[in-house]
Amino acid sequence: IFISKLEIKNNATLDSNFLSCQNDTMSVFIKQGHIKQIFTGYKLMKETIYDPKLSIYHIISRNDSIYSTPTIATNDLKLNKLTELDTVVNILGYDCKAIKMEYSNSESQTFYYTTELAVNPEDYKDYKLYYYNEYINKSKSVYLMSVWETSTFVLTHKAIKIGKEEINDKFFELPNFKK
User: Fold this and answer.
1) CB 158 within 8 A of CB 91
2) Which residues are CB-neighbours of 109 under 8 A, at least 6 positions away?
3) Cα-flanking dihedrals φ and ψ of residue 139, to 5°?
4) What percent of the chain has pLDDT over 90?
5) Helix/strand/coil (H/E/C) assignment for every residue in 30-84
6) Which of 50, 61, 90, 124 has a beta carbon 3.0–4.6 Å from 46's, enabling a disulfide?
7) Residue (of 97, 91, 90) closest to 113 by Cα position
8) What is the Cα–Cα distance from 118 to 143, expressed in whole angstroms?
C-alpha cells in the first residue's frame, strides 16, 4: 500500500481531480508481469490494470468506462539519462537503492527499490511507457517509493505496507461492464 504526497511548485494551477491524489492511498498488486492499482480517495481514477502484453487500462471513478494506453507507447518522450544514485533510503526496514530517470521533457522519476523484492525483467520487457522496462531491467525489482518531478509538481508514492499473498489470475481481468 502506497500513500501519495503532492507538492505544487511555482504557484502552478493543477486540475482539481489531479489534486485529489494528495494523501490518497494506492494498493498495488504484482504477479508475473501483471500489475493492478486500486485507488481510494482519488476522484479521477478507481483502478489501473497493466496487461503485460498490450495495454494499461484506466477505470474511471465517475463512469463505467475503461480507457487504454498501449504499454509500448512512449509518446515521443525520450529517456535522456538513467543513473544509479549513491543514495540509500530505509523504507519499511529495507535499505533501498535509487535509480533516477531523466526525460526529454525535463521531467524525471526516481525509483527507490530493494533487491530483496526481485522480479523477472522479462515479464516487464514490453512496459515501455515512461521506460518502466528500463527501470525494471536495471533494478530487477519493484519499487517502494517513486518521485515524479515536473516543472509544476512533485508527486511521491511511498510504500506504507508490504505483504505477500496468493493472487488468482482472475483478479487482473477487466471488469465486465453492462452494455
Assistant:
1) yes
2) 100, 101, 103, 130, 135, 146, 147, 148, 149
3) -85, -30
4) 35
5) EECCEEEEEEECCCCEEEEEECCCCEEEEEECCCCCEEEEECCCCCCCCEEEEEE
6) 61
7) 97
8) 10
Tell me the β-bridge partners of 109.
101, 148
pLDDT digit string, tens, across residues 40-81: 765 556 777 777 666 677 666 666 667 666 655 555 789 999
The arithmetic mean of pLDDT across residues 107-129, rounded, is: 91
R_g (Cα) of the chain, nearest Å? 16
36 C-beta neighbours (distance < 10 Å), count: 18
Per the listing, cell 481531480 goes with: 17
**Full-model pTM:** 0.82
- Distance between CA atoms of residues 49 and 52, nearest Å: 10
Q: How are beta strands 2-8 and 45-50 bridged, if at all?
A: unpaired
Grid cell 471488469 is found at: 175
Question: Is 80 exceeded by the pLDDT of residue 100?
Answer: yes
Cell 543513473 locates to: 83
Residue 92: strand pairing partners: none
